[in-house]
Design brief:
This protein is α/β, with parallel strands linked by helices. It has two domains: 168 residues, HUPs (Rossmann fold, 3-Layer(aba) Sandwich), CATH 3.40.50.620; 88 residues, Pantoate--beta-alanine Ligase, Chain: A,domain 2. It is 34% helix and 19% strand.
Length: 284
């Protein structure tokens, strides 16, 4: 196994398949991103660093996971700053492919991955084409990078569940690791979209994590109490969620006395935010 680069060393930047292949060595860990890296991404990279001889961070704003009218053009692109984050985290290779590298047949004619029933609920109901785009680009990254391990944040929990399912059912041979959500001091889950919030919206947005904490505090009284307590916090903040649900870890029906997941999505101003937490509801 090769030694990891010293923190601060400039990663190799690969933009083509050939450059990527030449840069890889030994076992590979991958952290897929769309750039605009923040402390949450840095934590992902730090967790992934010891999992392979070569640590790859991909940076690609994937057009197929944005529906018409969503924020593809507005999505922040901060490549030079992203390189600094990668350097400090000890990344060996930054894979920043061009569009044709990822979609050689073009966006209209590309082969896609159907996310199945799990991709049609929650985020999939709100954004019907989103997970097809996510799984398509992740499968392409797996094919190009050939990682042994890939790390994803738990903030996008449904995405994590779908990638795990895809890797398992399509026999891709990639171990999928989830990293706990990284939060601001007030509990707000770190996200590249937080920069779009005004100061007042930023204060309101913190109520999403407060609602989750209220749900956790009420877990001993059962699923109904979890949802009622979380919704009260959202109502008090005048937040109307796209959804607030309690599921099992695979996004099925929650079972009393077993680990569950409380998930929320809501728009604060024009910015759509996601959050979730683990808990164990009591009750019969």
């Amino acid at each position: 196994m090769t030694s990891a680069p010293a923190p601060g060393a400039t990663p190799t930047v690969a933009r083509t398949r050939e450059e990527l292949k030449a840069a890889l060595n030994g076992t590979v860990s991958l952290v897929p991103t769309m750039g605009a890296l923040h402390e949450g991404h840095a934590r992902l990279l730090e967790h992934a660093r010891p999992l392979g001889a070569t640590l790859v961070a991909s940076i690609f704003v994937n057009p197929t996971q944005f529906a018409p009218g969503e924020d593809f053009d507005a999505y922040p692109r901060t490549f030079e700053a992203d390189l600094e984050v990668c350097a400090e985290a000890g990344v060996d290779v930054v894979f920043a492919p061009t569009g044709p590298t990822m979609y050689p047949s073009g966006l209209r004619d590309t082969v896609t991955v159907d996310p199945g029933p799990l991709g049609a609920i929650l985020e999939g109901e709100m954004r019907p084409t989103h997970f097809r785009g996510v799984l398509t680009v992740v499968s392409k990254l797996f094919g190009l990078v050939r990682p042994d391990v890939a790390m994803f944040g738990e903030k996008d929990y449904q995405q994590l569940a779908l990638v795990r399912q895809m890797s398992r059912e399509l026999a891709l041979g990639v171990e999928i690791v989830g990293c706990p959500t990284v939060r601001e001091a007030d509990g707000l889950a770190m996200s590249s979209r937080n920069r779009f919030l005004s100061d007042s919206e930023r204060q309101t947005a913190a109520c999403l994590s407060a609602a989750l904490r209220a749900g956790v505090d009420a877990a001993g009284d059962g699923a109904a109490a979890v949802l009622a307590s979380a919704r009260t916090v959202l109502d008090d903040a005048s937040i109307v969620p796209d959804y607030l649900v309690l599921t099992d870890p695979e996004l099925g029906e929650a079972v009393p006395g077993e680990e569950a997941r409380l998930l929320v999505a809501a728009r604060v101003g024009t910015t759509r935010l996601l959050d979730n937490t683990a808990l164990t509801p009591g009750g019969p």
